[in-house]
């Protein structure tokens, strides 16, 4: 009797496995069963904070779950990123990060995570144009005038960055190398602090994420000289790119993306990708992102993974060219 029950149990188990395979059942079928945590390694109010808040609020409505945003700053964004890299790979802990996920490891000597080995990409959340801004009181009307002023007094012009090795920093370095001038870097913890110093005129210029700078540009408190991308920003159609301004190899893209720990099941990653893209492509979210100056950036999870690997190498090359000293945290 006991043997018969064991045989029946084995047969039933095999039948359930076969049925699961036939119907396409997977771990993601009943997922999610709880709320999510979205870790943002930037201060509230930054572009990398505003974009995921906008998108994951919509994803939460779709899934009937809450996406709780947690700002974990410190270590040049490595504290928050490492917290997600070491989290349970169940899809409930998400990292919302910029390309600092690859640029910071190129600068800091002992980053506790590997951007390629420790994360699985979900999807880009959007492309965030970076705009070169100055205070009107500087009386600088164009990129050419800015470069001329920098060359007139080598090493004296100051430029802000929201952290060492972050995209705003490397954007400024790439532009500086392309334009051929020396300057003095003034790093800050985040975009709001850097922007404040440029608004007051205490720092000369800043490549600022557009969502943060746009209100001040609209009010005339900042002058937009150029954008750093390969094409003009939709929100600033009359502002040229640095390439158009006559500085080859000066372009640098700044994006925001979503990631989970590397060992997260692929079906869970696929569902997160689908739900997030659905939210991004909704009319309501598109309108909100457009008001922030954030532009669409469509990419599959696999293609985004490949881009991360490619940009990691580019960041190392740029850091060496700019002679950026490794920054212990």
SSE blueprint and pairings:
Layout: H1 2-23, E1 36-40, H2 47-63, E2 67-71, H3 78-85, E3 93-98, H4 100-107, E4 119-127, E5 130-134, H5 143-152, E6 158-161, H6 167-179, E7 184-187, H7 191-200, E8 205-209, H8 210-218, E9 223-227, E10 255-261, H9 266-280, H10 283-292, H11 301-321
Parallel strand pairs: 1-2, 1-3, 6-7, 6-8
Antiparallel strand pairs: 3-10, 4-10, 5-8, 5-9
Which fold name is given in CATH as the topology of the largest domain?
Answer: D-Maltodextrin-Binding Protein, domain 2
The CATH architecture category of the largest domain equals 3-Layer(aba) Sandwich
> What is the typical, i.e. mean, pLDDT?
89
Q: What is the β-strand count?
A: 10
Measured by DSSP, the beta-strand proportion falls in 15-25%
Fourth CATH level, the homologous superfamily of the largest domain: Bordetella uptake gene, domain 1
Number of helical segments with 4 or more residues: 11
Major sheet: 5 strands, mixed
The coarse silhouette is: globular
Name the helix and strand elements from N-terminus to C-terminus, one letter apiece: HEHEHEHEEHEHEHEHEEHHH
Helix-residue proportion: 40-55%
Properties at a glance:
329 residues, 43% helix, 11 helices, D-Maltodextrin-Binding Protein, domain 2
